[in-house]
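User: These chains co-purify. Model them together.
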Amino acid sequence: MLAAFSSVILFAGFFAPYDFAAQDRDTPFAPPTTLHFVDAGGSLHIRPFVYDPRDSASTSPNAEAASEQSYALHWFVRGTSYKIAGLIPSRTHLFGVEKPARIFLMGSDAYGRDQFSRFLYGGQISLLAGLIAAILSVSLGILVGGIAGYYGGWLDGILMRGGELFLALPWLYLLFAARAALPLHISQWQVFLLLISVMGVIGWARPARLIRGVALSAKERNFVLAARGFGASDAYLLRRHVLPQTYAVLLTQITLLVPQYVLAEVTLTFLGLGVGEPMPSWGALLTSLQQYSVLSSYWWMFLPALLLIPLFVVFYAVADALQELHKSVPL
Amino acid sequence: MGKVRLWRACLVFIAIFCACSATRARPQKSSEDRMIAGAATGHAGGRLVVALRSEPKTLNPALALDEPSRDVIRCLTADLIHINRGSLKTEPSLAQSWSVSRDGRQYTLQLRRGVRFSDGQPFNADDVIFSFQVYLDEKVDSSQRDLLVVGGKPINAVKVDDYTVRFELAQPYAAAERLFDSIAILPRHLLQNTYQTGSFSQAWTLSMPPNQFAGLGPFRLKEYVAGQRVVLERNPYYWKADRAGNQLPYLNEVVFLFVPSEDAQVIRFQSGDTDVLSRFSAENFAVLQRQQSQKGYHLDDLGAGLEYNFLFFNLNDPGPNVPLEVAKKQAWFQDLRFRQAVSVAIDREGIVRLVYSGRATPIWDQVTPGNKLWLDANIAQPPRSLDRARELLKSAGFSWRNDDSLVDPRGDHVEFSILTSSSNAQRTKIATIIQDDLTQLGMTVQVVPLEFRAMVDRLLNTHNYEAAVMGLVSGDADPTSEMNVWLSNGETHLWHPRQEKPATPWESEMDRLMQQQLVTLDYSKRKKLYDRVQEIVAEELPVICLVSPNILVGAANHVGNFRPAILVPYALWNIEELYVQ
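Assistant: Joint model of the two components:
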């Protein structure tokens, strides 16, 4: 399920009917488009169809005179160009409706942009952010935790106290300060990747502790001691014997950290530290909910938040499964 | 609020009559010298609850800069000549009448007799002389000092007798009586000592006991609870009466609550906690409108106000502060055709629809449709056209790469950032729409919301920016309130402030026109001069004017005599006449 979801996100351009930045200034805050199967005359259509959201939009001056013109849903339509996985250019979209009608599966936002398309594209950024930060954290964790656990003694003491210091840092304020210090001319992407890397770097302490524990117990194992007896070097022992034992822990850690960092991205963007307009991210999709008027008027703006819940549940389920597996693996 | 307020007062008779102008106040000669207000007769008693965005910083009229302080001070004090917010004309206030010398340089004011401060002490010419001494003292550093300096010299106030004061100006000044609006008269008997001992800047903070405060306004200070509210009570010595001869104000109490955000204020108003609401967005207007009939309040859309929002580029001389990167881009910004292309590419109608839910007007120069007396109807309003924009860019030597991205004659991609104030959601939205419009021309635009003060520092001091979206609100409808913006040596001449001499021929023409209208007394001549200023703004586009939002207000149905206006403070300007039905 996670794989299916991830591939939808990866091929967002194909699944999304519109570009994430395409504005339709006639349909701000259009509610989710209803797919109809039965027309006004009562006859059934196999191919679902929609009505033009413009006709029902409150801003339309001639809402009264709305002609109930229907537009059929088509599969594999040609639309705006995009790049599959950022490489192969294409123009084919999974579905779409004839112009001038529009299909907003999750409604539209304040600029008349399709929330569904933005959710898919936003996923690319948010998941990428989670992945980068998690990998950064864990690799720093391996380095520090492995060394601390393997060598022990005063080195262990310094590294672990340092880790605790990092845990105690008020990282949110640090990020605010970091953002304020950045020049204006950096592109939003760079700012964002920078912030995420900073977060990943700050977050090494927890995985480092876990890995230290594993390394600590691993180095006392008989086969490690035996290898040492045969004259193996520290680097060889670490690489060949100690770190491979942390592998299962690492995998679990990453699956736990990814949703955590995705959520961190959501928080950061919500607070105005993430990607800027018009780039979508899951956090950016939720920022409009800060406004009372949006909160009280447009329920579909909550949909991205609701969709995140099952995603996180799946992530944690995978982490759980990995942990089970790890227990059953004989060391 | 994220707006620069221009506290330069103004001139000339304005003939805008609102529907409510029948209730315009009129002076009347009665034995007690009371002023008779013209509004419908109400009932005495009751209280009004209003929310302020933050705690007032001070109650000292000479030092107050923030909006909440001014809102409270307005209820506590009175001026000599007042601009009626309903009619936009000047009307007698503490000065019962006034005359102007033929050369327009001497104003003689007859003061109202028998008027008392809110502590019962009498008011006379000494208080007026003392007040102007304070406002003009450079050591006090009052923000009003600026506007009381005419032709480079401070206005000279001379006491003729106990109830006559003569003001002498260094040069004629178009309808100088508008200058007196909002210059609160201070009680000499309470403040002279602190002023002479040099501690005036510490006088009248919120923490002082209420009995040390006295003013000539309809209310006086009763209580201040830090972090929660300021309570004002009825001033029993107030000098206005209604048509039936009842002394004003009607209300016993006015309570100012501190409610920090707009959304919170809207919710408090919606639930009936507060009685009057102003300064809120069109989205919240729509939310409130839906429940208007069930809940006991009503909303008013007063149409275009005086606020104008605009986009402008950094046209400063490249100095040591302007980074090289910005200086390189200034070659584009300096090119009029580039600015014209940007202007014609912006979808003003789209901004009105998406940002203000239709409650705004597109504009092409700085005078808004709300300012009917000074609006130049002949300003061209070119409709949005991307083709026209492309033509202009082509004629300026720009071209497009294969991927449709725009490059300048040197082959550099056109890319810049637009600053907005992060506290103003509307302006950030405007910038986002502009970003999308300009992307269609092949430009790359970034929107950078910054904290308001950090933004202003970049705009006016360090000049480290490329473009910005801002808005200005004049304190008055008269062009004199905008001197600081249009004079090339002005502090808020945003695109290139504080020039030693005008950098361009059109800026020097604008300087000449603005100076000339200042000393011209005839309205139609002044109008011609200011029309030309508007033409220059529309042609040379130092600022690309975009929209003017409507003034939106709301009041509980039980508030009587509620007559909102398009001038600050929109809702509470006639607070002495408000009553509870």
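The CA atoms of residues 56 and 69 of chain B lie 4 Å apart.
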